[in-house]
Specification:
single chain, mainly beta, 5-stranded antiparallel β-sheet
Length: about 120
Amino acid sequence: MPLNTEVTVASVTQNVLMNRQLKIDYALAVEIGTAVDWSFAFEMRLYRDTTLIDTRIFNRSSQQAGTQRFPLASTQIDIVPATATSTYSLRIIVITSKSVNTATANNRDLNIITITP
């Protein structure tokens, strides 16, 4: 994952109806390869098409080198503003990275359930 560039790690396109509630669940693991004295921070951003719905910030640091794995998950409720075909996407942007050699997103899942009245 490049620094300061959004990368889409999961997406779902589906037909949605106005004013319906959607329960959106996502889970993934971010894995980084590090040298000694590393720090790493990124944002997970959930979008409906081009509209930002939710942001989660994650940051860690350590003195030890090696492979670090961070399992992450979240749930969000979205009320659909219009009947349409929409793409929901989970994107990651790395904010800071020191002594990090590699960064990947693994085990990526994005599920959407329509809640009917």
